[in-house]
Amino acid sequence: MTTSAGSAASAAPAAGDPAATAERASSPHSGFRLGKSLVVAIDGPSGSGKSSVSREVARRLRAAYLDTGAMYRAVTLHCIATGVDLQDGVAVEAAARGIELFISTSPDRESVTIAGDDVTAAIREPEVSSAVSAVATTMGARAELIRRQRALIAGAGHRIVAEGRDITTVVAPDAEVRILLTASEEARLRRRGDQLGGTQTDAQLKQQVIDRDARDSTVVNFRQAADGVVTLDSSDLDFEQTVAAVLDVVRTIAH
Ligand code: DC
């Protein structure tokens, strides 16, 4: 696999990459703590590389994987599609409670459906990215999604890597391993730009990364690690090095 320093998110292996599949099959971590609870909670800001890194860590551990941001995105898409006013907190909370949402917890299969309709790609559209903070800052909607996230963690038999903004502090504060994955602002903007294939202007990138984090951090603190949470700065690490660093923390803490 080719990687370049500081491009953790963009250097993630594609699903089905034969080299990555072979590496996983021989992963020395796949039997780690089998039969015991192993919840790995990972929080971090946009562009920290946490989704691709968390997914790969889950594969190596043969654990489930939960992308909680995808759930906030799904509720946002549902509100847009059904004409719910995103400024109306009561209506947004009702939408979060009523949504028939399915999210795959397999690290090898990214799938999100609403009432049976596949929305896996649609939740990544810019329209959703720029509106999602309205759902993330509606406390009633958060409470409902947190309840569902805890149920998904339990449903995965507590062998799961769950990532988002409040997993280490609110969703799973008792997780065996809790990590805050950070990166410098420069690295995060560069990674998100690479991820979007260089299609965005600097101003658009700033809006999607820095401004969105500023709005979201009014309700959850993902800028500083809470007590007992390990901070991992990936600014100078490539994808493989970041995965290895997370696995090191897992094996050191959850022995
Ligand atoms: O990680 P992401 O960009 O897909 O997250 C989408 C939005 O959801 C983001 O604006 C922050 C919010 N979010 C949150 O508030 N709490 C979480 N646990 C996960 C995501």
From TrEMBL:
Alphabetically, which GO biological process terms does the record hold?
A: pyrimidine nucleotide metabolic process
What are the boundaries of the region Disordered? 1-30
Q: Which UniProt keywords apply?
A: ATP-binding, Cytoplasm, Kinase, Nucleotide-binding, Transferase
UniProt cross-references to Gene3D superfamilies, sorted A to Z: P-loop containing nucleotide triphosphate hydrolases
Task: Enumerate the InterPro entries for this protein.
Answer: Cytidylate_kin, Cytidylate_kinase_dom, P-loop_NTPase
- Keyword Transferase appears in the UniProt entry: yes
Stretches of Low complexity bias are at: 1-22
Record protein name field: Cytidylate kinase
Q: Which family does it belong to?
A: Belongs to the cytidylate kinase family. Type 1 subfamily.
Start and end residues of each Cytidylate kinase domain: 40-251
Q: Which reaction does it catalyse?
A: CMP + ATP = CDP + ADP; dCMP + ATP = dCDP + ADP
Gene name linked to the record: cmk
EC number(s) on file: 2.7.4.25
